[in-house]
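REVIEWER CHECKLIST
Item 1: Sequence provided? yes
Item 2: Single chain? yes
Item 3: Sequence as submitted:
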Amino acid sequence: MKKIIIKFFLLSIVLFMCFACCGRKVINGIEVSELLLIASKEQNIDYCKLLNESIKGNDSSIRQLALLKIYDGAGYDHGAVVVHLIGLIGEDKFIYSLTTINNEQRKWIKEYIEVGLEYGNNVNLQTQTFKEAFPKIYKFLN
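Item 4: Structure as written out by the authors:
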């Protein structure tokens, strides 16, 4: 009986650690959810590599990341990543990386930022409108 309890306890610890530690990655303080990793993998995109390059300031990577088409729940997570990325690289760098985008792409990015502000985990930004949080980007995208 005692062995069964010990095995159950150890199994519970392993499962807890798996659920607590697996399924997401944190890159330079930005959480990338399992849902987002799966959605990007389905498009043959290494999301973490792309995010790393974006954080380093690679204009092409920033543009590619911002323009990804991620749907459903993963889209909310992607919006939160975009908002965090802007916080790291700054509005000016983000805008510079997007200077060649068209109006449809501007609308797409605007929606990600709005969702990222509303549903992201940055408490300081959740109460702000898009225009208040990122006035330069707001002006650029509108």
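Item 5: Key structural point noted by reviewer: The CA atoms of residues 19 and 99 lie 41 Å apart.
Item 6: Recommendation: ____
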